[in-house]
Amino acid sequence: MRKFKFLIVFILVGLLLVACDDGKKDEKTDGEKKPVSGDDGKLSGEITVWAHPFTADQEVEGKMWEEIIASYEDATGVKVNFEQIPWANRDQKVLTALAANNGPDVFYVIPDQMPQYADAGMLLSLDQYLEGFDIEDFVDTALVSTTWKDELYGLPILQEAYTYFYNVDVVKDIGEDPENLPATWEEFEKWAEKAKEKGYYATSFQGGGSMNGTLYPFLWQAGGQVVTEDNEVLLNNEAGVEAFEFINKMYEKGWIPEDSITAMEHNALWDGGKMLAVQGSGNSVSRMLDQDLFEFVIAPPMKNKEQLTYGTTGMFVAPINTDNPAAAAEFIKIVTNTDNQKKFNTVTQYIPTRESAKDIFSENKYLEQLAGYTQYALPGVIHPEGRTIMPMIQAELQTMLEGNKTPKQAADDAAAAVESKMGN
Amino acid sequence: MKREWNRNAIVYIFLIPVIIHFIVFQIYPFLLSFYLTFMDWKVIGDPEFVGVKHWQHFLSDKLAWKALWNTVMFSVYYIIPTMALGLILALIINSGVKMAGFFKGVFFLPVVTSFVIIAGIWGWLFGGTEAGMINYLISFIGIEPQLFLANSSQALAVLAGLSIFKVGGSTMIYYFAGLQSIDKQLYEAARIDGASAIKIFWKVTFPLLKPIHFYVAITTTIGSFQIFDSAYLLTGGGPNYATTTIVYYLYEQGFTGLNLSYAAVLSYVLFAIILVISLIQRKYLGQESKHY
Description:
The complex is a heterodimer of chains A (about 425) and B (about 290).
Chain A: H1 2-31, E1 46-51, H2 58-76, E2 79-84, H3 90-99, E3 106-109, H4 113-119, H5 140-144, E4 147-148, E5 151-152, E6 154-159, E7 163-167, H6 168-173, H7 185-197, E8 201-203, H8 215-221, H9 238-252, H10 267-271, E9 275-280, H11 282-291, E10 296-298, E11 309-310, E12 313-317, H12 325-335, H13 338-348, H14 365-371, E13 377-378, H15 386-401, H16 407-423
Parallel strand pairs in A: 1-2, 1-3, 8-9, 11-13
Antiparallel strand pairs in A: 3-12, 4-5, 6-12, 7-9, 7-10
Chain B: H1 2-36, E1 39-40, E2 48-49, H2 53-60, H3 62-94, H4 100-112, H5 115-125, H6 133-139, H7 155-180, H8 184-192, H9 197-208, H10 210-225, H11 229-235, H12 246-256, H13 260-285
Antiparallel strand pairs in B: 1-2
Helix pairs in contact in B: 2-13, 3-4, 3-7, 3-10, 3-12, 4-7, 5-11, 7-10, 7-11, 10-13, 12-13
């Protein structure tokens, strides 16, 4: 019993120490603040930048970052500590580091993180640092994802545009012309029907994956929207129901594979030449060229009422608790300038977000073609709840595909679920 | 106190690093996350006190209850089959079959293989189209292609199958150790008394493995309540939340929705459930008892 008491006392003392230690650490960080830029507008000190591995060839990528960072350091005199963070669990890493007040001064985010972070007051608004900045050079759709409630929180460095890649052999087999690809839902339906008759699937549908690759592009093409900035849910209006109906039709007619309800990929079917078309972007081009399985052609994003598609945007942002906001903002401006975007996107094979940097793909006709489509590429649902509502909509879509709800019911229930979330 | 110290100093010296580690990485986060359940925490900035709001929300959150139900169903599909499979495999390698070491290695292989790879193979086997391996095989006996992971009534069982396949090898090792420790004389005596092989198994082997049953039951139960990766990798919690388990839901809430306080509530609910089940199992399975 005495031993037990001793142990209890020991643990309590330990806890006390942990608690005290925490306090001490806080004081220490406050006391030893990193050197920062002064009020006179001159930049100084140092900043920490977090980015992720964008390519497999780390040697080339490392050299690229050295050049980009040198261009910043030469221009500002601020020292950059560049840290590469693995993609896996990047959210947790950024959040825990920022919460502990020792996170980066600049980091990379994708569109669905940005409004979530911005709405929680975690990000530094860049507006005050952008006087006289040539923002017009950026592609409009790329800036959509960097803006939340009329404030700009980041500058984009890369963009993608997803659109249909067609297998030329299959196109020929169904008696169509690979030079003349479907541009509207109606034309696509005709091709899909023919493909089905010949024993092919028309396209892939990854119902277990992100809605950015499934419902959303069809919703936007139908002229709809998921939710507005003011929390107005538009999922079940006429356009919304039309998108649900179109997907249901694709599944019922067997244009998309039977397992589309929860599938995460259909690579085997596409690579095996059993599919007419898949949605792809720059990554898919590199993969297709490496594998060299069959010839493919790329169609422009489809149109129903609108010509739109999905394409992510990658941007750099600064946290609100950065010690050196002016230097961080300047880094974001310099890393996304024309020269650095050219360097970055030549190495990573993404599409630059500045019109003036888009001439880097003259040797790759596929990427050059995709670069012309980023103007149609929306970055997903830009809303703080964008990521939370996705599983709710997905569940209703899956229920519809299982045959348990009509498209109208599914759209209504999805809208109701999203509305109840917004009401929270 | 001083005498106590003199007598056991060495023990405490060795314990100190362990206890410090335990306090910093277990007790402190444990208490902090409990505190978090009464707060609205935005990661940056000061947490705001909201009382029992998150606990109340849990009571009315249908999805959380569905996730709990899914987890219970997963346990039903998973615990007994895993124990049975482990025991059967252990009996095979313990039976004196030729190349027992080889079989042991084969049976153990899924345990040491990365879960992501096993899940990939499983997803490929249970593909929901005609091209899926299992669908191809069952077509020979006249069964229509099944949707498996895309069917809300099959998906959870397919995921449980994956976990059974993955974990069966390690339960086999526990049972194998248990089988080895049973006194051979007991078998001899039973045989002299004229007991059949089946009777020997049920009257001698099975009861004497009770400590192993207990250990394996506890670990597989805890494992089944913590199931996350297979749903994350293969179904994304779908179709229609059919494979959303409590930990998957917790992850979604915490790290996708940044609703960390509510995720903390869910983790406490999970903790309470695992604690209660462990205590019940301990009461009914864990008593040391002599059978002879």
